[in-house]
Design brief:
heterodimer, A: mainly alpha, 2 domains, B: mainly alpha, 8 helices
Chain lengths: 175, 160
């Protein structure tokens, strides 16, 4: 399992570099072919680059801190069969704190399932992992502002909990 | 530096100091991990800023808003929702892309649905999810995530 993910990451890294080569090539061609548009294109890219570069070191640092302080073992220790509102809150916190792409959370979700966690809690955990992370919310705050971030975060939390309950009901009906 | 960026940097600096006071070795590890992931992230960041430059520089706001703007209707909205579900892009990148789309005339609903489907749905990683969590669970989770992404976006549009 771990090896599959590792191998996937190396392959992904190579694909990213190929993608970067391709897009750089395209970018240079466009700038050469339409010099009247090139100042606008370069301006936009530069301003977004600046906006990213002033927060990204801080964001990855925060992710690094989460990684050393909240290990997989801690997540495994606290996740489990707590039910009701308590279980949901624990699942949100456990999903929101560690770092990593969503597919890195699948093995943890499986461990949760084996420990007897409810489907609702597993869905809430995965959803929180996908889109309620603090570093992620800080990037959203930087690019889209406080109002957008808070509104989307609130709506997402509510709907994710409802979705968890619906999936739990549905899986029972389908069985 | 914008107030937002100042807040973010100060917040992380405080966390770093707190962590350092509690455990120097762990904090050093965190910095090492952070540096590595920054290097790993750099090519993706470059791809995204070049793409944003091309998008905003070449497509006029009129073109973009015709597809995913206020008046574009369901077609463009669903298209960008599907695009978000299919794209395999790190979640952190969803936000600069979203901001660039808003800059170029996209509607709040389109941008919100894109962020939600991009972060919650993984078509590329669906086989792995099926393998670990079972077919029924994976399909229900991804399918319903698509539906709540649309609901969240529509409500955002109304409240905004």
């Amino acid at each position: 399992m771990k090896n599959t993910i590792k191998a996937g990451q190396t392959k992904e890294g190579r694909k990213t570099l190929i993608g970067l080569g391709f897009i750089t090539f395209l970018f240079l061609i466009v700038i050469k072919v339409s010099p009247e548009k090139s100042p606008a294109i370069i301006d936009v890219s530069l301003s977004y680059f600046k906006e990213m570069i002033i927060i990204f070191p801080a964001i990855v640092l925060l992710m690094g801190l989460f990684m050393v302080w909240i290990s997989k073992d801690i997540v495994l220790k606290y996740m489990g069969a707590a039910s009701g509102l308590k279980g949901i809150i624990i699942s949100i916190i456990l999903g929101a704190l560690p770092t990593g792409p969503l597919y890195a959370a699948f093995p943890l979700a499986l461990a949760m399932k084996n420990k007897g966690a409810s489907i609702t809690n597993i869905v809430v955990f995965l959803s929180a992992w996908a889109c309620i992370k603090i570093p992620q919310e800080l990037v959203e705050f930087q690019f889209l502002g406080l109002k957008f971030m808070l509104l989307r975060l609130t709506l997402t939390t509510i709907f994710v909990i409802i979705m968890g309950m619906v999936i739990e009901k549905l899986t029972k009906v389908i069985e | 530096m914008s107030p937002n960026a100042i807040f973010i940097n100060s917040f992380v600096l405080l966390c770093l100091i707190a962590s350092f006071l509690k455990d120097k070795r762990k904090t050093r590890n965190a910095i090492k991990v952070a540096f590595k992931s920054l290097l790993k992230m750099l090519p993706v960041v470059l791809i995204i800023i070049l793409l944003i430059g091309l998008l905003l520089g070449l497509a006029s706001p009129e073109t973009i808003s015709k597809f995913i703007g206020e008046q574009s209707g369901w077609g463009g909205f669903l298209l960008i929702a599907i695009l978000g579900a299919a794209a395999h892009i790190p979640s952190l990148m969803a936000f600069p892309i979203a901001a660039s789309l808003i800059d170029s005339g996209a509607a709040i609903t389109s941008v919100t649905v894109f962020i939600t489907t991009l972060t919650m749905i993984g078509i590329v990683t669906l086989p792995l999810e099926i393998q670990l969590m079972g077919k029924k669970f994976a399909i229900l989770r991804n399918g319903l995530s698509f539906i709540i992404a649309i609901l969240i976006a529509l409500i955002m549009g109304v409240i905004w």
